[in-house]
Structure formats: structure tokens, C-alpha cells
Amino acid sequence: MSKPKIAFYWAGSCGGCEVAVVDLGEKIYDVVDAFDIVFWPVAIDTKYDDIRNLEDGEIEVCFFNGCIRNEENEEIARLLRQKSKVMIAFGSCSHLGGIPGLGNLSSRDETLDYVYRKTPVFGNEDGTMPCTTCVKDGNTIDLPALRTEVSALDDVVDVDYYIPGCPPPLPVIEGAVAALMSGELPRKGAVLSTEKTVCDECDKEKRKKMVGKARRIYDDDVDTSLCLLEQGIPCMGPATRGGCKAACPSANMPCTGCMGPPPASQEQGSRMVTAITSLIAVENEREATAEEVAEALASLRDPVGFFYMYSLPTSFLKRRYNDE
Amino acid sequence: MTEESFEPKIVGFLCNWCSYAGADLAGTSRTKYKPNVRVIRVMCSGRVDPLFVLKAFEKGADGVLIAGCHPGDCHYMSGNYKTRRRMELMRRMLEQFGINPERLRLEWVSAAEGARFAHVVNDMTEKIRELGPSPINGGATDE
């Protein structure tokens, strides 16, 4: 009897998710014992046609990492969806849009212009710009076009489960793989991690204290035994799903929110606004003017970039608008 | 939608103790004011989750008005101070999203200020009318 087939794919991603799979170490042999890997561009030599030649639904599970940034990402997402029984968004980019999702704060043309013309270290004196068709030695090569917007995987295809994280933490992957192998899967659309927040898993002492303004982690005398947020250091813990065992705060770095919103909240940014504004307030607020309130909060740099670092394309507003 | 026929849709979150009573006073005093605000009563302006604001914009609101008790007068002592912080941050975030922060307005309206409520609504309606329809959902993208 042939083994059930699985596939791994990377779309708009950095490759970190692939490393996370390899981090399974010897447990990967259990996966190989139980499944036949039919497609994994980063590790084995397979072609898109190998997938096209499969029957619909022939792949048991597809682990898809990376966001949908260009037309190729979208095309392969649709192809793999068609050929797979279970489609899993693996990692922040396919789950929420990920860090590339911040590209939605610029238009496609602005992005291309900056990357190919304005980046100081990029020598492009001829002003060569990427194009979608190229003729070389009489042959025409078509290249995928950049989409106007970055999307998460579920924006273009139906997704069955999500494995969160940038990259997904090992226990979360192991838990998901164990659930898949036992066949005991939760309801469709579930995020395969804990229901708790990062704060619930963080063992720093919380004193419910307020601060006058936001600080940066490198500023000065940070007490690493205390909650970073209560010392004015923006930390996404309250607006982020756990499962990582608060890996970053444990290493004295603030959480940046890669696991996405916790189950009780629909998006991270608004949740974080509530959390951080209950901690940062100007002293003697009752006598303060609106300007003084604004000044205290101005210490918080780039709120959209920080609160939506991994989830902009799946947030309520999704991208930048042009409101003349 | 043409410029002339554009009627701004404004979602108004009014606190139960001051601003809703103020709006009520405007009504019982038969003060005429623009019909563009859809009022939602909340127990406190501090009840307005930033999510409500984003949701209103996502669903097509051209503006969001939040009205609460004057500083020092909050029925729950500090709800309006929290709102002031939140909405200040929200306005900055809207700016980053390329949305004119004037589309989100926070006002203090007491239960005795029916006339002020009418003024706020009229003023905001005209300001939003000048800004035009919200660019979110169906509006112009930058490409």
C-alpha cells in the first residue's frame, strides 16, 4: 500500500519556515515513515508538473508557507489547493501575511522604485527594472508579476488549518504533526496552537503599574525580572497568541506578535491600542491638555508597523489608502 | 457618487451618562441638526474598543464620532481619560494608513449641552463632506 502523500511549498517567504521543519530533527523520520513527500522545492528535486500530473485531492496534506506576493505564489497556491485534501497555512506569512505584508503600506510602484532605484547600496545605474517578459537568444521567458497587494494564503484559497509563528515554534509543529498522524484534527479553520496569550505564558512579574512614556529595549536600566510592557517597552504579549512559551520575552526581547491575534480578538492592532494605552499615560493626566496626552503617546514609534508587524494583510484596514 | 449628492455616513458612539443625554436634550429641545450621524449608545466612551472604530470604517463609515463626558465628569471616574489616550493613538494610526485622521473625532458633550451636540454633528458632517467619501472599501486605492 502506498503511503499518504504530503507536500511542502514556500511562496513569498524567507526560508525560515523550512528551517523550522528541519528543526524537527530525527522526528522528521517519523513523518517520512508515515508519509511520502511528493513536493518540497527547498529539499528535493521536484517540478510543478509533478504536481500538475497528480489527481485532485491526491496529496493528503500540504504545508504552505510564505505570503502571496506575486502571481506565481497565487498560481501554485491554487494548484496545491486543488491537489490537496488538507491545506495548512504554515507560519506567519501564509497565516496572516507576515512581515512582507507591511509592503501593503506602500504601493507596488513605490516598492519597486525604492528597491531598484533609491536603495543607497544598490548599484543600478542603467535603471533596469524587473519586467514580466524577457527575450533571450530568441526565447521568450515569462516571469511572474508582483501583485499590487500582499495577501495571506486564505485570501486566495480555502485553508483548513493554521500553524502560527515566525517560524512556528517546535512544540507547535510537533503538536500539529502528532494531531495529523493520529487523525484527531480539530474543527476546520483552527489555529493549531494554544488558546492562551503570550502574557499567560510569560513568567515576568506583572505589577499593574503605569508609565509616563514608551521606551526602547536598549534605552537603559530595564529590569529583566519585570514585565517589559509595564516598563514602557512595547511588547505584543497581550495581543498575541501563545504556544511559543514566551520565547522572546524569556530572552528579554519584547514579543513582536508573530503568533497572531489570540482567539478572543479579531485583530492585533486594535487589541494592542487598548493594552498599551492602559499603561502609557502622562503624569497628572487629569490636569493634562490633549497636547500633553498626545506628546506622551508620541514616544511610541511607528504604531502601525509594530502592532501589525505580521498581520497587516489580514487586519481590518489591510493596507494604506489615499485619502486626499 | 457625485460631489453634490454625497451624504457623509458618520457612526456616533455616545456615552450613556453625558453625551447620549445631551443628544436627547437636543431632540427634546427640537434643535435641528444634520441627520448624518447614526448613534450607538454605549455605557461609557471608554467602552469604545478601537476595534469598533476600525470596524465602522471597514463597513463603510465616512467618519466616526465618539462623544463622552467632559474630563473630570466620567460616571466611571476614568473612562474618558482612557478613551482620550486610545483615540489619540488611533488617529496617528489612521494617518499611517493614509486615512485623514479628521475622520475620527472625539468630543466632550455633557447632558446639558444639547446645542453643543447639534453643533458638533453639523460641524463634523460638513468637514467630512469636504473630505469626501472614505477611501476604504470601494474607494480609490493609490494605484
How does this structure look, described?
The complex is a heterodimer of chains A (324) and B (143). With 324 residues, chain A is an alpha/beta fold. Chain A folds into 3 domains: 5-99 and 156-182, NADH:ubiquinone oxidoreductase-like, 20kDa subunit (Rossmann fold, 3-Layer(aba) Sandwich), CATH 3.40.50.700; 105-146, no CATH class; 198-314, no CATH class. Chain A has 12 helices and 9 strands. In chain A, the strands form 3 sheets. A 5-stranded parallel sheet of chain A has the order 2-1-3-5-9, sandwiched between helices. Chain A has a two-stranded antiparallel sheet with strand order 4-8. A two-stranded antiparallel ribbon of chain A has the order 6-7. In chain A, strand 6 and strand 7 form a beta hairpin. By secondary structure, chain B is α/β, with parallel strands linked by helices. Chain B has a single domain (10-135), classed as 3-Layer(aba) Sandwich (Rossmann fold), CATH 3.40.50. Chain B has helices spanning 19-28, 50-58, 79-96, 114-131, and strands at residues 10-15, 37-42, 63-68, 104-108. Chain B is globular, with a radius of gyration of 15 Å. Chain B starts with 9 loop residues before the first strand and ends in a 12-residue tail after the last helix. The relative contact order of chain B is 0.24. The model of chain B has no long low-confidence stretch (mean pLDDT 93). The chains are: A alpha/beta (324), B alpha/beta (143). The A-B interface holds A 105, 107-109, 148, 265-267, 269-271, 273-274, 276-278, 280-281, 285-286, 290, 293-294, 297-298, 300, 302-305, 307, 315-317, 319-324 and B 49-51, 53-55, 57-58, 71-72, 81-82, 84-86, 88-90, 92-93, 96-100, 103, 131-132, 134-136, 139-143.
Quick description:
Chain A has twelve helices and nine strands.
Second CATH tier, the architecture of the largest domain in chain A: 3-Layer(aba) Sandwich
Strand order of the largest sheet of chain B: 2-1-3-4
The tally of beta strands of chain A, per DSSP, is 9
The CATH fourth-level homologous superfamily of the largest domain in chain A: NADH:ubiquinone oxidoreductase-like, 20kDa subunit
